[in-house]
Structure formats: C-alpha cells, structure tokens
Amino acid sequence: MDFLELLKEKYGSETNRITHSIGVRDLAVELAKKLGADPKKAEIAALFHDYYRYDDNDTLISYMDKNDYDKYMDMPWGYHGLAAGNKIKEFGITDSDIINAIKYHTVGRINMSLLEKIIYVSDFAEVNRTHEGSKEVRELALKDFDKAFLLTLEYTYKHTLDKNVLELFKYYGGLNMNELDLVINEIDKLNMENIKSYNLASKSPLFDYVVIASATNDRQANAIIKNLRELDGEGKISIKGIEDKDYSWILIDLTDIIVHIFTGESRAYYGLDEIYSQYLMEK
Predict the structure, then answer these.
(1) 0.90 exceeded by the pTM?
(2) What pLDDT was estimated at residue 256?
(3) Out of 58, 88, 131, 208, which could bridge 201 as a Cys pair, Cβ 3.0 to 4.6 Å?
(4) CATH code of domain 179-279
(5) Are 240 and 254 in contact (CB under 8 A)?
(6) What tens digit of pLDDT does each residue of 173-219 get?
(7) Among candidates 49, 17, 72, which has minimal Cα distance to 122?
(8) In the CATH scheme, what is the code of domain 3-171?
(9) Could you tell me whether strands 257-263 and 249-253 are parallel, antiparallel, or unpaired per DSSP bridges?
(10) What is the pLDDT of residues 231-240, one digit of tens each?
C-alpha cells in the first residue's frame, strides 16, 4: 500500500496537510533510524496519522473503537488520531505499534512506545511547523530525544492547559511546574471561580500571559496574595508588584504573567475577558 498516494487522493488540492504529513514522515524516519526504531513503521504511521484530520466529529466517532471513545470523549481534538488508528486496519495494517502511534499522536498516553513518542514529537516539530518550540524541539530531538519528548509535552501543556497533558508531563519525569502552572494551581486550590488564561506572548511586548479569576469574598482574595508571596519568598515565582487597594480588583504583576483577581461584579464591569477573548487558552 502506497500511503503517500492514498493521502494525496484523500486531500487533493489541500497541499498543507500533505506537506505536513511528509514533514512528519521525514523527521520520524530520521529519528527511527537514529534511535533504533523501525523506519518503515515510522513512515506508515506518519503518513496516515492525519488521514481523517478534517472529517467531522460524528464521522470520527463512528470510526473509533468504543473503548477509546469512552476514555477520550472529552478530548475531541484527538478524535482524528483515534479514528485513524482504528481504520488503518482496513488498509491491511495490523501492527499494534503502528496503530497505537497513530492513535495517540495527539492525546498521548502512559507507557508510550518509542515509535509512539517519535510520531508525537515529529507531529509537533516537523520542519514546516512554525509555532513556539517547534524548531527547538526538532533540533534537540536529534541530540537528546528523551528531553525533546518532555519539551514537547511542556510546550503542549503551555499552549493548551490540558490537565491530561500535565499528568503525562509529570509521569514522564517533568516534575517541575513552570511559573504559569504554579499560579493557576494556587488559584485553583482556593476554589476561585471561572479561571481563564490568555496567551499574549506574540502580541504584547510587556507580558506573555494574563490570568483572570473571580474570588467569592475578600478573604479568598487576600489568601491568593498571601500564597503567591510565599511562592515568591521560596524563589518559585517573582512578584514585581501588587495593586490591592480595593479587593474588588487585585492586580499581581509577575513580569511575564499578569494576574487579575476580581470580586463581585467588577469583572464584568471592566470586561477584560472580552478584550482578551481571542487569546483564550483551551483547557
């Protein structure tokens, strides 16, 4: 089976998807040869991993194994991989490592095989990717693949705030939470409401992230100041300044991160969520 021709027949004039898949193939094969994995398996998995990328969710669900759907129903961004891994059997592929490398190239999982990790990293870092971290991961993968895999998980979590990715990051040895993680974790521990994070790294020269949350009372608002000051004292974060004259709106400046804590109706009044809405980070 010529999976490149199959991909071209599927996507026709949609050259971006074909170009991406070829890029994944090239990096995956190079890594497989370097790391002792099977290059042919890497090639097949890479060329088929996004075969159903643009199919609608209802179609993808119909292609998925029921157990996969039950486990990953809340992660629709991974449906296309789970579907492709199941459907490739109809194209004569029964090798479980190829199937799993395709299935988990987006959602990841505990105990990933070397081939699964290679496809995961190659999908993130192939040469046509231009997002933050792609070049760094690509260059690192050829020198220290384990660190590149961890860095892929770290960047993926940074841009999605998906808790499943965070758990994988911890499982595979990435135990150090970055500053954004620490701040969100402290806010979450206090049971604040409607926690939102916005990524403005490419838009603002002054800061990278904005975190907004609602405190239910002044005591809760005061607690987050106390907790973040403790983290600052431990050297885990660096507080540049705090404006807290009125607990209806607390602003905490962490240089790269700006935290806004609102109480009462002040959040709706100032409308920061609306201002930053296009930069909302998915959870």
Answers:
(1) no
(2) 87
(3) 208
(4) 3.30.460.10
(5) yes
(6) 764 457 888 899 899 989 999 999 998 877 788 888 899 999 998 88
(7) 49
(8) 1.10.3210.10
(9) antiparallel
(10) 889 888 889 9
